[in-house]
Amino acid sequence: MSGHLARYLETLSRTQHALSYGFHTLRRVHPRESDLCGVCERLAAQCRDHAERLEPFLRRYRSGSLRDPRPAPSRAPGRPPGLEVPRREASGFDAAGFEGAGFEAGAFQAGGFDARGIDAGGFDTGEFDSGRFDAGGRDTGVLDTGGVNTGGFDSGSFDSGGFDAAGLEPADLQRVVRGAVERERAGAEGAEGADSGTARRPGVTPGRGGGNGGRGGGRDGGGDGSGLALLRDLHGLYLLGTECDLSWSVVAQAARGLRDDDLLGLARHCAPETAIQLLWLRTRMHQVAPQVLVVPSW
Amino acid sequence: MLDRIADPRGRRTPYGPPDAVERLAAALPSHMRDALPPVIRLGSPWPVRVDAFTEDGVAEPDVERWVPAVSAAGSNGDALDVAVRGGRVVGVRGRAGDRVNHGRLDPREWHAWQPRAARLTRPLVREDGRLVETTWDVAMNRVAARSRELLARPGGWGSLAFHTGTRLFLEEHYTLAVIGKAGIGTPHMDGDTRWGAAAAAAALAASFGTDGQPGSYTDVDHCDALALWGHDCAATHPVLWERMLDRRLGSRPPAMIATGPEGTAGAREADVHLAVRPGTNVALLNGLLHELIAGGWYDTAYVAAHTVGFERLWRVVEAYPAKRAAEICAVSVAQIEQAAEILGAAERLVSTVGPALLGSNQATAAACQVNNVHLLRGMLGRPGAGLCQLGGPGCDALEAGSAADLPGLRNWADTGHVRELADLWNVDPAVIPHWGPATHATQILRYAEEGSVGLLWITASDPAATMPGLDRILAREDLFVVVQDPYLTETARLADVVLPAAVWGEKTGTVTGADRTVHLCEKAVEPPGEARADLDILLDYARRMDLRDRDGRPLLRWTDAESAFEAWKACSRGRPCDHTGITYDRLRAGGVPWPCLPSSSHGIERLYAGGRFNTGPEDCQTFGADLATGAEYGEERYRAENPRGRAFLHAAEFEPSPEVADDEHPLVLVTRPGPCRFPARPARPGDAASEPFAAEPCLEVHPGDAAALGVEDGDLVRVESPLGALEAVARLSGACPGAVVLPLDGQGEAVARAVAELTFTAWDPVSRRPLCTAAAVRLVKAGRRGEAALEEGLYSAAATRLGCGVTARPEVTAVAGGGEAPERYEEV
């Protein structure tokens, strides 16, 4: 049983990394939204911290025994423990943002740029080519074997093949998600190239004129849909965040069942932070949604 | 060098605190005070000293009329009389009997009032790319036609946006609020308050339920301890500072704590000065709260009965013993302990929170911690226990609703509040924008940049002069910009329609000062040419737009300032800012603080007497937000945790500022707004250079830092941040080690803008305010003393932004002072 828990925790860890990356990317591709400044970096660091705090528990339950006799290493609040496992390249998160190549386990595709996104004209440069992230950043072996496409959201969808690894029933999930996708597609006609058969690229749609490419040069053009891109990115991150939120509540249950106070403490620490992340995303979406969806651009 | 702030023009008038009986009397409600025997002095013991400034060659007997008015120099709300001779304003004189200033005047007052050249006298419209003079009819019809065109489309409400300065009267703010929120239904209304008073308002609403200064200036008379949190009081509120100084010089003087950079008058005067590293206010306050709680210096009964969140606050501040706080803030442990002792021992504590704290890292969170100090010690709602969050002018905009909030400190998320307004205005509640938080100023400009805002109406504000890159947005083809201003400002030069407005003294209305005191400012002279009062312009627009209520009657049924004030009174009824007891006649006798019910014509001096706060779900202005991210908690959660009239003790972890110094950029650049930079509005073309304080651009460097760099006093140095560079003359003064201070007194807007270019734009997530007060920089010696040609070298490099892809700004032009007209708009 606890093998399942280990796999579930692994998925959660990956999702947390993906969310962290997603927040970083959000900030990076919407450089002109000044209110993202600071908050995104902060939330990204929080997610990374969650994932790092999970590491000891991954080791504990991966070993197969239900209750590892070793106590979890005690740690100062806010400091991730020293990790023995090959550590994810922490330098991938440098001050300037995230460096795609340095990121492996957490890739989860969240940062992949959807070439079929709404702003398709704007980012055909190599920088935004999803293939690059596909090749460089994503550990496909881990993530895609299940091939369950939970992308319930067009450009902000996320591929959570990890559900399979966590021992969930892929067929059920697939059915539910397919339904959601189809419902959405019925509403939004002409989502180019949307094909439920292909694993869809999730995450963050490049906004107009990121500091790193796109149409960087002449970007004082008219209504360019970058508001919509922002809304969709927030939407995508929200879905990713709800997965973490849900996972933490499930982990808390498991921890109670295992009488693992450390794990329960971790879930109790992380769940409220994740809840705040969701609230923030919701707040920000509420701010932007009416203007983007209702008000015409000139 | 003579320090004109520490040694102002007027003579000192030391005084001691009132005795215990008078203090008890001051705590009584006003109708009971009226019944007291006359032997008990009810007024403030602060001696009267009448200041007057007049035009050269004009003596007081020459003055034809004195017209009651309000300070135009700052947000203090000093009452004064304007001298009129020959249809001109020729001087100002403090009003002796007023509760706020007792006759004193801000030294900048005359500078703010003296008539200037280069007023706009006729409306201008853009024809073939040039601004040409026209008639009011043409200009207003053009604005109305464009508005109607935009509104005709689905979602048209979101195409109109208003940015409002702080130089309007309450009546004008309210009129604009009704036009925008009930007539057009746009959520895009905000203004300069976002960059000033918003953090103070957000912190007050977060802790106490609604905005509004809890304290009163008269608390300075009673207090036995004063704490100035990042408040360079002498520079921003000179009259309040004189009151404090007079107390310090009199009998039984209050102890004083000051935080913020050295070199300010408050820092020199204070018993304990905490020169914290910029951006570390939360750590300092957490350390002080730790000391207060750990030392048992808090009122357990008050905390238990009137606050929520004490356990959580302790959980957070427990991790900030004085030692840790001292390390973070770069002050000594002993200083923190001394400050905590003063705060803990005080029986009557007055705190003022200034722009430096409210404009730096974690602004709202830090301001909430000051609120916590007062809540823990039960220092609210009685004489001498006062708290003032002095973010800047513009309380009127926040109360009357021309900024982001709904009028009357109402909560957009509370359907009951929205229904109240809908009933009052007799409009469909669906029109009133309450489907999400109102748009903040930066976001409005962002929408304008994206093209979804098609009409931007800027009133009494000149954002283009201070915001880099805004000119590019305003110059967009598809954005119709209306500027309503007395002067042809930089913003106005980019407008499609310019509407000439009257200045104070040329129109009538009320102004609310920083301690909630409402004053009447009456019309003294006629506006020049065809310039009109802002109220008349707005009413004209409403007429042309044919804004009507549900029954087809005109939405705005008032025609002048007094009837507008009556309309506002109806709107404020039952809210914390109740104005129903105030009338113009009552105001002619002197300022009245809100809330003021008809039953008590004095108004209530101190809010929250007896520890009753406006935090009930039906009363509060906000359902709360996470201090770290600004995430809104929502109504459900608020109702579930119903605080039932108790105040919130908000806890916040210290988060290092994104612009903290590192190896690459080891110093921190901070700016110090000087006494001559108008807090009320940015400098404008046509403003005289501030003669008494004019100073050459200089940079205060700590001698220790300077020695390490080989910089001597008077050398030309270049300050480099990752965003740009700025050159100035180094002055080796006693600034905090590790910090370089750029005083902005006497500096033109060009320097201010260069600084804005230089600093990172951080963000306060709760008040949604951009923070550009500090930047990590390095210092490079650029020239020897006296050899550099300063005029060329200065701020020329400031425009180079690295790595952002933003085109360098065209050379900024400093505005020449001297009061002559700026270059005429030749196009006309």
UniProtKB/TrEMBL annotation, chain A:
Residues 206-216 have a biased composition (Gly residues). Residues 188-205 have a biased composition (Low complexity). Residues 62-86, 182-221 are annotated as: Disordered. Residues 71-80 have a biased composition (Pro residues). This is Uncharacterized protein.
Automatic annotation (TrEMBL), chain B:
The lineage of its organism: Bacteria, Bacillati, Actinomycetota, Actinomycetes, Streptosporangiales. Gene3D superfamilies: 2.40.40.20, 3.40.50.740, Dimethylsulfoxide Reductase, domain 2. This is Molybdopterin oxidoreductase. Residues 119-539 form the Molybdopterin oxidoreductase domain. InterPro entries: Asp_de-COase-like_dom_sf, MoPterin_dinucl-bd_dom, Mopterin_OxRdtase, Prok_molybdopt-oxidoreductase. It comes from Microbispora bryophytorum. Pfam families: Molybdopterin (PF00384), Molydop_binding (PF01568). It comes from the Bacteria. Keywords: Iron, Iron-sulfur, Metal-binding. GO terms for molecular function: iron-sulfur cluster binding; metal ion binding; molybdopterin cofactor binding; oxidoreductase activity. Residues 695-770 form the Molybdopterin dinucleotide-binding domain.
